[in-house]
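Reviewers of the previous submission asked for a worked example of the structure-prediction workflow described in the proposal, so we include one complete record here. The input consisted solely of the amino acid sequence. No template or homolog information was supplied to the procedure at any stage.
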Amino acid sequence: MPVITCSIVLYHHTPAFLQPVISSVLACAMVQKLYLVDNSANNTLKILAANERIEYIFNKSNPGYGAGHNVAIKRAVFFAEYHIVLNPDISFKQGTIEAITQYMNDHPDVGQLMPRIVYPDGGLQYTCKLLPAPADLISRRFLPAFVTKKRMQRFEMHKSGYDKILEVPYLSGCFMFLRINTLKKVGLFDERFFMYPEDIDLTRRVNRLYKTIFYPYAEVVHKHERASYKSPKLFFIHIINIIRYFNKWGWIFDRERREINKKIAAQYENYSK
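From that input alone, the workflow returned the following structure tokens.
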């Protein structure tokens, strides 16, 4: 049985809010260690570490979301084969991790996997995306839906149907099933990104060497808090870090982005015919 570890970054959540995700993880015997990395200003959530499979890490300095997960991954790399990065608002049924692990075991060329993501009411979340150009993210955030509909349908790969296994260059960070050997080669989360585009950046780096796969035969529930739509502070953080992402990868002149998106779009558009 492969060794699987998991990490959740906390920030002043309530124990009740975190219970579904913690219960989901602990219900899977394959997960040998769950790291709770607490970026809060106090350690009151330490009470959640009652189970021997949970390791609580207090990270008072709050270095950011990706950096918080890196703390856990740096411990996991010494003994784990797979590591799961989870949002605090995730839950899933028994058998989910087992199904994903079996697929990863059978496909050593896959470095990262994301299952089908749904809302609590069962509605599909469009979490498979092409690599974003600045216009994609600006349109998505600031323009009305009827104006951006066609562009967003392409960006979010709607034509794929979300009903088949696909290679995707940008997988959502709410649930990232990662091969540890892959991370040893491509590196961990880029800690220059305090929050938000770290999932785009990591998936893109993994995709250079391995397949990054959407696997629709396993499903997780994501409440999707969309915090940056509610908090001016988080909105500002989001904008600053998106700027950092494009400063790193390129704003207009990003040949790799164009070539990858063209290849991926051809894949799912052919399937839809």
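The chain has a mean pLDDT of 94. We consider this example representative of the routine output the project will generate in years two and three.
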